[in-house]
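Methods — Computational structure assignment.
A single polypeptide chain was analysed. Its primary sequence is given first, followed by the predicted tertiary structure written as structure tokens.
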Amino acid sequence: MREGLKWSSFLRRFFFALKKSGNVKPGPEGHAQKNILMSQNKNALIRYKTIDKCLQNKYRQWTLEDLIECCSEALFEYEGRQNPISKRTIQMDIQLMRSEKLGYNAPIVVYDKKYYKYEDEDFSITDIPLTETDMNVLTETVSMLKQFKDFSLFNDVSDILQRLEDKIYAEKSHTKPVIYLDKNENLKGLHYLDEIYQAIIKKVVLIITYKSFKSREETKFHFHPFILKEFNNRWFLIGKTKSSQPITNLALDRIMGIDYDFNVQYLEEDFDAESYYKDIIGVTVNAGLKPRPIELLIDASNAPYVLTKPLHPSQRLIMENEDKSIIVHLFISPNYEMERLLLGFGDSIEILRPENLRNRMKKILQNALCKYETEHKTDLNA
């Protein structure tokens, strides 16, 4: 599926939910009504998407009962509980999908008096472009939300709105987006993101099948998920296997499978991610290792990069030398990710202190140099 079509689908769902929930009155009762309405909108969107997915499968015949069963399963997977769906609800969904109200105009037809299908076999509601009205409303909505940029809450959504605005511009002008974020779509495990996210917010215990790079065999264990964390284009699941065990991080690209255990009580912990990761770079927290002062000498060519993009929030400028090199101070706990970051500077950086870290990095660089000093002969014809 092309990225533009996927984004059009997202914008359409966003616009529909926004338009539907816009008439709710404020106040305690209004908020309750709004929550109910938003839940109903989500359920409806899940049903539309499920019906669409079913009818795209032209190798199976779909009765109304089949569609009801698939929608029920989809809602159960989303909500974690049975949510009965009436025959009339699915009939109304199909009628709405056929109409212009949602902008789908889905060519759903009945054949043999009981089976449903798309008359156009290549049709999908995710492929429908946004109308000019949709684009105008979304543009106005983004502009309205940007008026709240001075509120602290806006910090959490400003990046999202910026990307949304860029996508809207690209859709309206039929040009390529001007904002590109670094991403690796071939990274394994990304398909688990939404599944894990839902488990976290619903507080469901997972059964993880995992295989680390150091292990020969897969292992299976219960896991209480707390948060998802991204670092250097890799995603990690943070949580515990049991209350007596320390916090563990699992790389999503090493997860082989995920299941659920609704019979195990979820471990309620007041996990503060901000505090937990405050003194490190990356995701590896070495238990018992306290943060320590680290001083680095950065050469003149790399000094501006380190000053404009600090290595860590604790970074402080200690001295600027006459040759434009700088000395910076960090207060962090050394870990694998920190070492990788510093080694990435090559000969542009020098660890001044602590002495044990300086010696460790020196040994790593000496070992690396040995690989280049040793004559390496490779028989290409072997």
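Note: Residues 149 and 158 are 7 Å apart (CA to CA).
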